[in-house]
Amino acid sequence: MTRFRSIFDEVRAEAVQRELQRDLPFAAVQRLAGLGFGALRVPREFGGEGLSLPEFFDLLVDLAAADSNVAHLLRGHFAFVEILLLRAPSAFRDRWLRSIADGAIIGNAASEQTGNSLADMTTTVQEVDGRWVLNGKKFYSTGTLYSSHVYVAAGRETNEGPERVTLVIRTDAPGVTLLDDWNGMGQRLTASGTTVFDNVEVDPESISPYSAGGPSHLGGFFQLVLVAVAAGIGLAVLNDTVDFVRPRTRTFINANADVPRDDPQVKHVIGQLSAAAFTDRAVVLAAAELMQRAAESPERDTSALHELVDAAEIAAYRAQVQVLDDVLRASTLMFEVGGASATFRDTALDRHWRNARTVASHNPVIYKFKQIGDYELNGVGPNDMWRALWSVGPATPSGKPAA
User: Fold this and answer.
1) Average pLDDT in the 96-102 region?
2) What is the mean pLDDT of residues 252-274?
3) Quick one: which of 31, 159, 245, 298 has the fewest CB in 10 Å?
4) Burial annotation 220-238 (CB, 10 A radius, 16+ → b, else e)
5) Which residues, 6+ apart, have CB-to-CB distance to 232 below 8 Å?
6) If 0-12 CB within 10 Å is exposed, 13-18 middle and 19+ buried, where does residue 201 land?
7) Domain segments of the chain: what residues?
8) Alpha helices (H) along 153-263
C-alpha cells in the first residue's frame, strides 16, 4: 500500500510539534480518511481495500511508528468495521460499509466510569413519545472527537427485561457533547475523554443487540490493536534513536570511538532496539494470522468456533506480554546513547515511554499471564469472560451481569 507511505512520513514529521504544542491531529486523520485508510478492511465490492487482518495490522504498526496517537484513536473505528463484517448482509450493514469507504470515521463510546468494571453501564436508550432517545455519559471515548459518528453501548428495557444494545449516532447531533478532557500522561492526543448524551434522538434502525450472536474475534481484535500500537512505538524508538545518533559528534571521554555512530557499545544498543522492533512486529502478525482464521470461519456458536476464537485471543495476549515488555524496556534503553541532550524537551523522546506505558495500562499484563496459564493448563479460554457482556443485559452495580 505504497500510497500511504508518504502520509505516514508527513504524520511522523509533525509528531513532535503536535506533542509539544498539544496540537490535535484533525488534519492527519482527515488525510488518512481521504486516502481510504479507514476502509482497509472494507470489502472491495463496497469500495474498500479488502485487506486481510495480517495486512491491516502490518500497516497499523507503521502508522503507530509515525504517531502512536493517530493509530490509537482509530481503534474504535476499525472495531466497528469488524462488527459490520460479522453481521449478515442488510441495508444497515451495507450502507455503513459504503459510508466508511467514502471516508466516514466512527468513534467509540462504550466504557463508563460508573460501577466497577466494563460490565457496568448507566447509559440508556428508551422510547419516549414515539421517539428513541439516548441519555448517559461515557469516558475513554477514544477518537470520538475526530469522528463523524460514534458507536455507543447502552441499556434498554424490553418486555423480557433489560437488554444491552449498540447504536450509531452523528457526533454533531443535538444533545451530543464531546469533551477533550483526557489528561493521561501519554497518548495525549487521542481525545480519550468524555462524551455526554442528553436526550439525543436515535434512529431505531441503528439499534442492535450487543451480542454478535456468539463468540467472535472482536475481544482479541480490540487487544491486538493496542499491541500493534505498542509495536509501532517500539519501531519509533528505533527510528528516533538512529536519527539522534547518526549526526551526533559529541561523545564521552571514556567512549570507544571518536563519534557515537562508530562506538561498539552504541551499536550494541541500536542492535537491541532493532531486534526488539523486528520481533514485536512479527508476533503481532502471527497473532493476526490466527485471528484471520477465526474471522473468516463459517461456523457460528459451535465448539469449533470457540476454539478458533480462544486461540486467536490467547495469541493476542501472548503478543501483548512480549511486546509491551520489549517496548517499555526499549523506550528507556534509548537514552543510553545520547547523554543529557537526549532528554531535551524539544526532542520529545520521553513521549515514547509515556505513550507505551499508557497503552500498556489499558489492559494490564498481570491479568494476561494468568489467562494464558489457565488456557494452557485447563483449556479455559477468554470466551467465558466476554460472555458476560454479549449474552445478557446491563450489569448490576456489583459488576455482575443482571439475571
Assistant:
1) 97
2) 93
3) 159
4) bbbbbbbbbbbbbbbbbbb
5) 60, 61, 62, 63, 64, 65, 66, 68, 71
6) middle
7) 3-105, 124-209, 218-390
8) 218-245
CB contact at 8 A, 259 and 89: no
Q: What is the pTM of this model?
A: 0.93
Is-contact 217 48, C-beta < 8 A? no
> Tens digits of per-residue pLDDT, 332-366?
999 999 889 999 999 999 999 999 999 999 889 99
User: In CATH, which superfamily holds the domain spanning 218-390?
Assistant: Butyryl-CoA Dehydrogenase, subunit A, domain 3 (1.20.140.10)
**The residue to which cell 428508551 is assigned:** 126
The DSSP secondary structure of 23-63, one letter per residue, reads ---HHHHHHHHHTTGGGTTS-GGGTS----HHHHHHHHHHH
Distance CA 397, CA 395 (A): 7
Fold (CATH) for 124-209: Butyryl-CoA Dehydrogenase, subunit A; domain 2 (2.40.110)
Question: What is residue 162's predicted lDDT score, i.e. its pLDDT?
Answer: 81
- Residue-wise pLDDT tens digits, 131-161: 999 999 999 999 999 999 999 999 898 887 7
Is domain 3-105 classified as CATH 3.40.190.10?
Answer: no
CA atoms of 114 and 398, how far apart (whole Å): 11
**Alpha-carbon dihedral sign for residues 257, 259, 260, 261:** negative
Say how far apart CA 111 and CA 131 lie, in whole Å. 25
Q: Round the average pLDDT of the chain to a whole number and report it.
A: 92
| 8 Å CB contact between 196 and 150 | no
Query: Does residue 119 register a pLDDT over 90?
Result: no
Amino acid at 304: A
For 86, phi and psi rounded to 5 degrees?
-80, -20
Q: Given pLDDT bands bounded at 50, 70 and 90, which one contains residue 116?
A: low
Predicted confidence band at 164 (pLDDT cuts at 50, 70, 90)? confident
